[in-house]
Amino acid sequence: MKLIPFIRALVLFSLFISSSKNHDYYVSVTEIKYVKEQKSLQIISQIFIDDFETLLRKRYDENIVLAPDNDIKNIEKYMQRYIEDKLKIKINGNAVNFNFIGKEYKEDITYCYLEIENISDIKSIEVTNSLLFDVLPDQQNIVRLKLFNENKSFLLLPDNDKCVLNFN
């Protein structure tokens, strides 16, 4: 069962969220929460700043520095483009697009805020999360789904980057 690697990754992630610039573990956490009153899925992706910066430099601009006052519009444009390419969500078998609300930096983590609006009937949700798999072969992505009365977590790896949660 994949519960033990998930627990290990979660513990290691929390241990290595320190101010240290170097880390030995490559983990992101994406939380997807359904807000019934707003009929929306609210998404927060947490990615180590140094890993995200390395990726954005390789993909888009070698001079990118992820810092609060640096070239906010271009950086957010690159972040949005990359996340749209690597984070895919299907509701009831249909692909849905999200709005990139913005980002912020806390300690050594980038928090990216996303939202999918006008969602009222969810029978299933499928998430494909391949964030950073293209630059970090040891990357692991945790997806936490909080919908209705269900709280489920999944550990996604480069050879298994998809999870599905069905509702009856």
TrEMBL record:
InterPro entries: DUF6702. It comes from the Bacteria. This is Peptidase E. It comes from Winogradskyella damuponensis.
